[in-house]
Predict the structure.
Amino acid sequence: MALAFAAPSLLEGLHAADDALRAEVAAVRRQGWATAADRVLTGVNALAAPVFDHRGQWRAALAIVGSTQLIAAEPSAEQIAEVTGAARRASGSLGWRAAA
């Protein structure tokens, strides 16, 4: 999440970043959310969305974490909508406004 929504210079500064990492970062930016099934702990997944401030800069991630039985590697549309919606509301409280 941090690489996808932090300043572009952060990713550009990773000279050793491979194509797979760059592709994953691009996908997260495009879809607006990320998962981490079995990456930290087997059987656990997280679904996260970015929170932006009034300047449109990434400041945090809002996430749900749970068993991969409840949050699949490909989360349900409802889970994605709830997490991204909550992140948009949190961003709005920080002064962020979506581009028209």
